[in-house]
Design brief:
Rossmann fold, 263 residues, 31% helix, 2 domains, alpha/beta, elongated
């Protein structure tokens, strides 16, 4: 895991998210790219270069944000791009190769009832990258215990588990698997893919209406430092992936949430 991308919004929690990413990168010797997207609506006949001004202001904001953190020995690069966050992130990944995106859960949203705000939710929905969503105010601690929840042991993507495997390798993390038997399960779902099996410290099988309910039942007893799920077309959040925001009543985690892309 060499390249970590950190999209920065304008919330008070942005500095906390960036500091978490820097602390995380320190442990694994990764480079951090701090990123912010901007847009402008220039009227016809405007003489000044609005895009250049906004880009300068964006870069100034990013430098100010970085300077407010303890950067330790982490190499940090600034990126500003005109356009949507998801499209820009995809373009950055194509050019640089991003291993992990670390983002604040609520991003630019001020709504108290949101778990995932528009930026985080949009990245989960529209990109193929692994996303690590950090709750508001969460301070970095080494990742020693991960609870991975899923309703099927089938893993078709050859790269979906790679970010998790790298975290386990770097942090010597214990992975506790939670297989949730939902009403629609098949016998095939109960068979663990060999790569999942290789990560397993313990395996708990739970019967619940949804994977989320299984998480609610077991997360306190497992007491993980991180929660991990797949982003599948018919998986953990099911219909929730169709939206750009997720309400706390629909899902909530008080530890960082690692979302793996399962194709």
């Amino acid at each position: 895991m060499k390249h970590i991308l950190v999209p920065i919004g304008s919330t008070e929690n942005a500095q906390n998210t960036l500091q978490y990413a820097i602390d995380f990168a320190t442990e694994i010797n990764a480079k951090v790219f701090v990123f912010r997207a901007y847009s402008s609506h220039t009227k016809a006949g405007t003489m000044i270069n609005v895009d250049a001004i906004i880009e300068r202001e964006t870069n100034l904001y990013l430098r100010t944000m970085v300077n407010s953190c303890d950067i330790k020995n982490v190499e940090i690069k600034l990126i500003s791009a005109k356009g949507s966050v998801s499209e820009s992130v995809t373009a950055i990944d194509t050019e640089l190769g991003i291993d992990l995106v670390i983002v604040g859960t609520k991003s630019n949203s001020i709504k108290e009832n949101l778990f995932l705000g528009r930026t985080a939710g949009n990245l989960v929905k529209k990109t193929n990258l692994a996303i690590l969503a950090v709750p508001e105010g969460y301070k970095y601690i080494p990742v020693s215990r991960i609870l991975m929840a899923f309703k099927s042991g089938i893993v078709k993507s050859k790269t979906a588990l790679k970010p998790l495997q790298q975290i386990v390798e770097k942090f010597k993390t214990e992975v506790h698997l939670l297989l949730v038997k939902t009403p629609s399960y098949t016998e095939e779902d109960l068979l663990l893919h060999k790569d999942l099996k290789a990560l397993e410290k313990t395996l708990t099988i739970s019967e619940n209406a949804t994977t989320f309910q299984g998480v609610l039942e077991h997360i306190k007893s497992q007491n993980p430092d991180m929660l991990c799920v797949f982003r599948r077309k018919r998986g953990f959040f099911k219909k929730l992936w169709e939206k750009n925001t997720i309400l706390k009543e629909e899902f909530f985690s008080n530890v960082p949430l690692l979302v793996l892309k399962g194709k």
